[in-house]
Design brief:
The protein contains six helices and five strands, in the order H-E-H-H-E-H-H-E-E-E-H. It has about 170 residues and is mainly α. It folds into two domains: about 40 residues, no CATH class; about 100 residues, Orthogonal Bundle (Arc Repressor Mutant, subunit A). Helix 3 crosses helix 5 and helix 4 packs across helix 5. The longest helix is centred in the N-terminal third of the chain and has 24 residues. About 15% of the residues are buried.
Length: about 170
């Protein structure tokens, strides 16, 4: 940041701080206002958060190689809010596996509630997918909490690996 711009910003911040302190005095409240100036940090590469409990459960689950590959493709292509828009043919071509194996892998992930399949609103022949927020999340933490609450309020099944004995509990 150029020195003159930095000084100008600091003067404005100091002036605003004095105004806040003065307002506090008028109301009989002591307010100490500080301004902290930080240089903006660079952006990081895109990433998703995988929850440890989910990762531990997946390690002990007997998925096929294709199911693991499809799951990783979903993880790598999800958008903010865990939304994945991809069709079976694209998955099949990307991973170079048959459409039948792709469908089997997607159904296995759906059965274990790792992905949630929803019908595309614009094209009834297509499905869109959401990754279960109890397993993985791409986005802000607060948005994840809201998403989990909304899905639970709508009675959406979120339990991962519902057929197994161990359920992953969510602490909201």
């Amino acid at each position: 940041m150029k020195k003159e711009v930095k000084n100008k910003v600091k003067d404005i911040a100091d002036y605003a701080g004095l105004g806040i302190e003065e307002m506090g005095k008028d109301e009989g409240i002591r307010i100490d206002a500080y301004t902290i100036m930080k240089k903006q940090q660079g952006r990081t590469d895109p990433f998703v958060r995988v929850l440890q409990e989910f990762a531990s459960a997946v390690v002990n689950h007997d998925f096929s190689k294709n199911t693991y590959r499809v799951m990783m493709l979903f993880f790598s292509t999800c958008q903010y809010g865990n939304f994945v828009t991809i069709d079976i043919k694209t998955i099949s071509e990307t991973l170079q596996i048959t459409e039948r194996n792709t469908i089997e892998a997607v159904n296995n992930l759906c059965k274990n509630n790792i992905i949630i399949k929803v019908q595309n609103l614009q094209d009834r022949r297509r499905n869109d997918f959401f990754l279960n927020p109890l397993a993985i999340w791409k986005g802000q933490t607060e948005d994840r909490r809201k998403s989990v609450k909304k899905l639970m309020d709508n009675k959406t099944q979120l339990d991962l690996f519902p057929a197994s004995v161990k359920k992953i509990q969510e602490k909201i």
